[in-house]
């Protein structure tokens, strides 16, 4: 009898805990976001690309032009009549261009890292805001590779994209206000 009572209590406890787990699972809201889409289609991503092109486009074109000129010089050096002096001059020019290219790439990479860090912060803040607003408990990045299927109602990508754009516009207006505030201080010097 005692054994029967203990088994009954264990069974009741197991059923109660499975009911609680089912209630908790029903209340759990999981969302998904395609971070690659947000990172490529958002306003700050587009502005970052434009900024990089504006800042480094001419220098990149100049390096490409110098590279093309060197390729043409290399073709001329294939002629057996080419002097050793012209071959040495070509090698010096190539080394100089290689050094300029490495320096250029380092500058571009530093700015890209800074832009990516700003973008990641903005995307995480936007994701957090959307998840809070829509009462999601958990949000997963679809591009990370762990999600094979998600219902459309779980997809927060467009909401996060809109939130990122909103944050970017707010930051842009704050930066513009900061620049306006700096101008009188600079002109007073």
TrEMBL record:
Question: Any idea which GO molecular function terms this record carries?
Answer: unfolded protein binding
On whether Methyltransferase is a keyword of this UniProt record, the answer is: no
Which Pfam families does this one have? OmpH
Cellular component terms per the entry's GO annotation: cytosol
Q: Which residues form the signal peptide?
A: 1-21
Q: Name one GO biological process term.
A: protein stabilization
Indicate yes or no for the key word Signal. Answer: yes
Q: Map out region (Disordered) in residue numbers.
A: 40-81
- Biased-composition ranges, Basic and acidic residues, are 46-69
Sorted keywords for this record are: Signal
UniProt record similarity statement: Belongs to the Skp family.
Q: What is this protein called?
A: OmpH family outer membrane protein
């Amino acid at each position: 009898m005692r054994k029967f009572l203990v088994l009954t209590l264990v069974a009741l406890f197991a059923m109660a805990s499975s009911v609680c787990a089912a209630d908790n699972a029903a209340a759990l809201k999981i969302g998904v976001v395609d971070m690659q889409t947000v990172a490529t289609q958002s306003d700050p991503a587009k502005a970052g690309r434009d900024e990089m092109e504006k800042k480094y486009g001419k220098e990149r074109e100049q390096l490409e032009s110098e590279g093309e000129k060197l390729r043409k010089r290399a073709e001329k050096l294939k002629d057996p009549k080419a002097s050793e002096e012209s071959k040495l001059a070509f090698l010096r020019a190539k080394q100089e261009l290689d050094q300029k290219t490495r320096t250029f790439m380092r500058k571009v990479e530093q700015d890209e890292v800074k832009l990516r860090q700003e973008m990641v912060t903005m995307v995480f803040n936007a994701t957090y805001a959307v998840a809070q607003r829509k009462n999601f408990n958990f949000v997963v990045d679809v591009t990370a590779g762990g999600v094979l299927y998600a219902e459309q109602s779980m997809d927060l990508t467009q909401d996060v994209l809109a939130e990122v754009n909103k944050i970017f516009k707010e930051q842009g207006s704050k930066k513009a206000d900061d620049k306006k505030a700096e101008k009188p201080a600079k002109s007073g010097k």
